[in-house]
Structure formats: structure tokens, C-alpha cells
Design brief:
alpha/beta; Alpha-Beta Plaits; FAD/NAD(P)-binding domain; 3 domains; 7-stranded mixed sheet; 5-stranded parallel sheet; 28% helix
Length: 532
């Protein structure tokens, strides 16, 4: 197989595939008839010379004749031997004790799927509801403000990522094919095949709901068991002088389930579970994270800056921004949603948190992104593993208070002045959930506010006009990542034998794809124990 990188085709080419094939033939010095197959592995837009734009392709090409790549003398052309993800051999009946997975977000979902493929018949415990019912509960919350603390944007089948943009890009290095396996699995169960080649793939909340549902049905068909509305309320851990081991879990404070192996994929908002684990002396640490505000700009403004032209046939433009300030704080964009909505993502009574979400068409008039500032020992006592959670709760309570339960919003110019906004500027907010104008500047400390403002000013140097006086700020974005890391060893196991901390909640992932990959890794390690 031959890999060719950096093939540029003008966006003005109406027949992209034909133009691509022509360039491949020229680069490889072959005729079109000698091409057996073309697999587009990556497709992005090069806007460095805007408004002249190009699609840039990386492809795998199979040809009918022997080609000496070295003679082509082109560093962008190499021989490759793609490595597919190796699914472990299936277990014979009763060869493995049925593993338990706590949580059915991306990590738990892929751990369960792999174990089910290997005939391990996993038991999944999910505190929330299945995704179809969960979607109805979330919609009701956005319309009425009535929160179901067990079924919401954070809790339920699919995890918190289900009600985001369904973004699938990751910086995790992967030489075992797990990343590709995750994307191919999503496609198998209903996602657009374009995610296999997009530089920044996304599914969209509307499509992700059906994909997750289809994966659940397959896990059940393969012999897995999924118990919804089943919260793990306690852990039975036995200890001796030399070791501690998981023996069982309590469900909804009333049912005891004996277990030997538990994949702990609880997500970053399972605060009650973190508390129980800490009380059971499961080793964990407080970790740094970031907080800030969801910032909206008109999507057309972002498109014009990124592309230099206004064309409706181009994908809505994303952006990624980051800086380190003189005070040592990092400020960066997080979970940027082109054509998206700001959503009320609360999961606890009298506390309010926001997130961003896009549907598959990314059809909203606005772009939004969290602009967040790093926090750590200046804000909470890191010697206490749960201190970051308490800090999150404090600022979420303030956001709820100033907005009286609705999403508090403030224009950037009024944030700087410390005044309550009275109306939107030249564009209005795109939200899911009730909103109100309030003093968003009162949620965080003065130092964090100053860092946020300075970051916005620096980002204006990268996207001219980004420091827009009527940019809309919504607060508070507090759950950028888990405030806790649950310790694990090289076997992905806690000091508590049989307990596998996994995914974003345990502190080992930062998005749908990385969490799914971590779920695969934990399932692999669990199965290795039975193979050795």
C-alpha cells in the first residue's frame, strides 16, 4: 500500500474525485487504469493563502503494478502497512467471570462492546436512562427548567458527550489501530462515513443518539446485560496486610452484586461516587482543570476570518486558540462548536453549568466555544482529592444564584464594566435552555476574570475582531475535565485488585474518542488477566 500526503486540490474543482485521481496518477507516474483503489484517510482545508483555498488529502493507494517509492524522490510518498485493530480471541463459555462496567459513556460503551465481542458477556450498570428516554428528559429540562438529577446532559447512556458536538478528534498517539476501530465502529452503527477521513470528525448530537442506541442493541445481542437506572452506591472491598480486592457492589442502596472485575467508567460528574471511593480509601488525587465561560460569535464572522470568503458550500469553520499568560495561567478554547448551541448541562439541584452542542448539520447561526482559564492550587487545596469538586460546586452555585436557575449571560463589554446587560448586540444567542441577563463577572475571582479578558485580547490578534464587544458570554463552564485522577498501574488496575479506573472521569481521557480508546485498553488488560 502506498501513502501519499499533502495532495492539494483547489476547492473550485467541481469534480474533486476526478481531480484527485489525476494528481495521484501524476505523482505515482501511472495511468488511471492502474489504480486499484483509493482510500481517503484525511481531508482538511488549507486556508493559509486565503481566499485561495485547497482541500488537502492524505490517501492510501493500491495499484496494479510494482512501484519503487524511493525512485519517486518525494517525501510525501511512502510505503505503508496499515495495522488494523486486533480483536482478542473470544472466550469459551464460562472461561471468564462476567466483568462489570460502571457507566455507559464512551469508555464504558467501548469496553462493553469489546468484551461482548469476545464472549465475556459484560454486565453494565448505568445510573441514567437509555438514550431515547434520556433525550426526552433533557428536552423537557431545557423547555421547563425541571431537572432530573438521574437523567440529564451528564448522566445516562452515551455519557456527557452525547449532548455535545460529537467531536471525534484526538491527540492520543495510536499505533495499535484503536482510533480507527472506534471511528469504524461508529460508522458501522450509523455515523456518516465522512468521519473516517475528516481532519476534525464529528457526528452531531442527533445522529449520536441513534449510534449509541444501535451499539447497545448489539451488546445485548452478543450476550451482554445493561441495567439502566442502576446507581452503584457502595463498594465492597476486602483488605489484608498485603492486598485489597473488590468483592462486590451495592446497587441503589438495596441490591448486592458480587464481582471480581470492575471497569470504573463513571464520567467526570459522578461526584457522589468519587466521595464513596475516597471514603473506601481508593487511591486518588486532585488534579488541575480549567473554568471559564461559553463565548458566542456569529458563525459567518468565523467563516470569513478562517476562509477569507463567504461560501455556503464550505463546511462551517472551527477554530482553536491557546495562550499562556505572564501570570502563568493557561487560557484556551475548549469544545469549540461550529454552528452550535450553548446548553444548560446541569446535573445537580441549585447548581448550573453550561456546555456547547451541535447537531450533525451544524446549522446554528452562531459559533461557540468555552474560553477557559487553568485552575489548581490557588483555587483549592490539592492535598484533598475532592477539593476540586467542591470548587466546581461553589462556582456552579453562584451561576445558578445569579441566573435564578436560568443560564446567566452578559455581553463582553458589560463583563469588562461590571454591568448587567440589557439586550443583545448585533446578534442573538443560540441556546438550549432558558437564559437571563446577569452579572456573569461575579462567578469567578478577579484574577480569573482578568486572565479571561487578557486571553480574549490575545486571541483577537489571531482572529481579528474576536474581542467583539457584543460577544455573548454564558456561565459557567466548569467541567472541562475531571477534577480527580484515580490512580492505576501499568495493568490499568487500581491498588484495589480487580478495579480498573477508566476514561475521562478517572482522569485518563479528554473527549469521546480518547475515552473510547481507554475503554478498549482497560477491557484488553482485564482479558489479559485470564489469558496469562
Amino acid at each position: 500500500m502506498i501513502q501519499i500526503q499533502q495532495i492539494k486540490v483547489s476547492i473550485h474543482e467541481k469534480e474533486q474525485e476526478k481531480a484527485l485521481r489525476k494528481k495521484i496518477c501524476k505523482l505515482l507516474r501511472i495511468t488511471d487504469s492502474e489504480i486499484l483503489s483509493i482510500d481517503i484517510r484525511k481531508k482538511s482545508i488549507d486556508a493559509r493563502k486565503k481566499p485561495e483555498l485547497y482541500y488537502v488529502y492524505t490517501v492510501y493507494v493500491s495499484v496494479s503494478k510494482k512501484i519503487s517509492v524511493s525512485k519517486l524522490k518525494n517525501n510525501n510518498i511512502t510505503e505503508v502497512h496499515p495495522k488494523s485493530y486486533a480483536i482478542p480471541d473470544a472466550f469459551a463459555e464460562h472461561e471468564i467471570e462476567r466483568p462489570v462496567i460502571i457507566g455507559l459513556g464512551p469508555a464504558g460503551l467501548f469496553a462493553a462492546y469489546l468484551l461482548a465481542l469476545c464472549n465475556a458477556k459484560p454486565i453494565v450498570l448505568e445510573r441514567g436512562k437509555q438514550v431515547e428516554e434520556r433525550r426526552e428528559d433533557v428536552q423537557k429540562f431545557w423547555e421547563t427548567g425541571v431537572l432530573d438529577t438521574k437523567s440529564n446532559v451528564q448522566f445516562g447512556e452515551g455519557g456527557a458527550g452525547t449532548f455535545s458536538d460529537g467531536k471525534l478528534n484526538t491527540l492520543v498517539k495510536d499505533k495499535f489501530g484503536r482510533n480507527r476501530f472506534v471511528l469504524e465502529t461508529f460508522v458501522k452503527f450509523g455515523a456518516n462515513p465522512d468521519i473516517l477521513s475528516s481532519f476534525k470528525p464529528h457526528i452531531g448530537t442527533d445522529v449520536l443518539v441513534s449510534v449509541v442506541s444501535n451499539m447497545r442493541k448489539e451488546i445485548l445481542r452478543l450476550g451482554g446485560e445493561i441495567r439502566f437506572e442502576t446507581c452503584v452506591t457502595d463498594f465492597d472491598i476486602t483488605s489484608s496486610d498485603e492486598t485489597s480486592k473488590i468483592k462486590g457492589v451495592w446497587l441503589n442502596q438495596e441490591e448486592y452484586l458480587p464481582v471480581s472485575d470492575v471497569i470504573l467508567a463513571i464520567g467526570h460528574s459522578a461526584r457522589d461516587t468519587f466521595k464513596v471511593l475516597h471514603e473506601k480509601q481508593v487511591p486518588m488525587l486532585a488534579k488541575d482543570f480549567a473554568v471559564g465561560f461559553r463565548v458566542e460569535h456569529p458563525q459567518r464572522f468565523i467563516n470569513l476570518h478562517q476562509y477569507g470568503i463567504d461560501r455556503e458550500d464550505l463546511p462551517v469553520a472551527p477554530y482553536k486558540l491557546a495562550t499562556t499568560l505572564e501570570n502563568g495561567r493557561g487560557v484556551y478554547s475548549f469544545c469549540m462548536c461550529p454552528g452550535g448551541y450553548v446548553v444548560n448541562a446541569s446535573s445537580e439541584e441549585h447548581r448550573l453549568v453550561v456546555n456547547g452542542m451541535s447537531y450533525s448539520d451544524r446549522g446554528s447561526k452562531n459559533a461557540n466555544s468555552a474560553i477557559v482559564v487553568s485552575v489548581g492550587e490557588k483555587e483549592f487545596d490539592k492535598s484533598n482529592p475532592l477539593a476540586g469538586i467542591e470548587y466546581q460546586r461553589k462556582i456552579e452555585e453562584k451561576a445558578y444564584e445569579i441566573g435564578n436557575g436560568s443560564i446567566p449571560q452578559q455581553l463582553l463589554k458589560d463583563f469588562i464594566k461590571g454591568e448587567t446587560s440589557t439586550s443583545y448586540g448585533h446578534f442573538e444567542s443560540e441556546t438550549r435552555g432558558n437564559t437571563t441577563f446577569a452579572r456573569v463577572d461575579q462567578i469567578l475571582s478577579e484574577e480569573l476574570n482578568a486572565s479571561f479578558i487578557e486571553g480574549m485580547k490575545q486571541f483577537d490578534k489571531k482572529i481579528s475582531g474576536y474581542f467583539m464587544e457584543d460577544a455573548i458570554l454564558s456561565g459557567v463552564e466548569s467541567r472541562t475535565s475531571s477534577p480527580v485522577r484515580i490512580s492505576r498501574n501499568d495493568d490499568f488496575m487500581s491498588d484495589i485488585k480487580g478495579l480498573y479506573p477508566c476514561g475521562e472521569g478517572a482522569g485518563y481521557a479528554g473527549g469521546i474518542t480518547s475515552a473510547a480508546m481507554d475503554g478498549l485498553k482497560c477491557a484488553e488488560k482485564l482479558m489479559e488477566k485470564y489469558r496469562s
